[in-house]
Design goal:
Number of strands: 12
Largest sheet: 12 strands, parallel
Low-confidence stretches: 10-19, 29-41, 157-169
Helix content: under 10%
Shape: globular
Structural class: mainly beta
Strand content: 35-45%
Number of helices: 1
Distance between the termini: 87 Å
Radius of gyration: 24 Å
Order of helices and strands: HEEEEEEEEEEEE
Length: about 170
């Protein structure tokens, strides 16, 4: 008002597409649904002091640094299990990045990345997997590469290329 400074309460100070927190409160929208400010602004976050037992379904990227028991599904998005994250859960996502501990099966439609601090006890199913030195994995890995698998009932060996046939035992 005085001194040529813009008035913070004037409508020109805020962009019309950005709603103020006070406006959202009047409309009954809880602040927890607003995007977080900071480096994880593109998705939801479960902090290291949070414990969840049950099912989590989401339509956005999810960062978990707490404890989860049950099911976690963010099918078309990225799931990151932070270094403090502890899951006893089946996990389904487009991309899964594991820095913490997972006891359960992991299914990613595109990619799974295991950091050196990762501990996984369970099967992994994905198209691509990246595993840093030091990561722990106890379970099977299925990359779904059907064309790389031999035909069922046939053993591929150097003898097969010379016309001999064999069968799987």
């Amino acid at each position: 008002m005085w001194g040529g400074r813009p008035d913070p309460d004037s409508s020109s100070a805020a962009s019309p597409s950005v709603a103020r927190a006070s406006e959202l409160a009047r409309e009954g929208i809880p602040f927890s649904t607003l995007p977080a400010s900071g480096n994880r602004a593109t998705g939801a976050s479960i902090g290291k002091s949070i414990v969840v037992k049950g099912q989590i379904f989401g339509r956005e990227d999810l960062f978990i640094d707490g404890e989860i028991e049950g099911t976690v599904e963010v099918m078309d998005h990225r799931l990151t299990i932070g270094p403090n994250g502890r899951l006893k859960a089946s996990v389904k996502a487009r991309e899964v990045v594991i820095e913490g501990t997972v006891h359960g099966n992991v299914h990613a439609s595109e990619r799974v990345a295991l950091a050196r601090t990762a501990k996984v006890v369970g099967d992994i199913r994905t198209q691509r997997i990246v595993m840093e030195a030091g990561a722990f994995l106890r379970g099977k890995v299925d990359t779904g590469a059907e064309e790389a698998r031999p035909e069922e009932g046939t053993v591929r060996s150097p003898a097969n290329s010379q016309g001999a046939t064999g069968s799987a035992v």
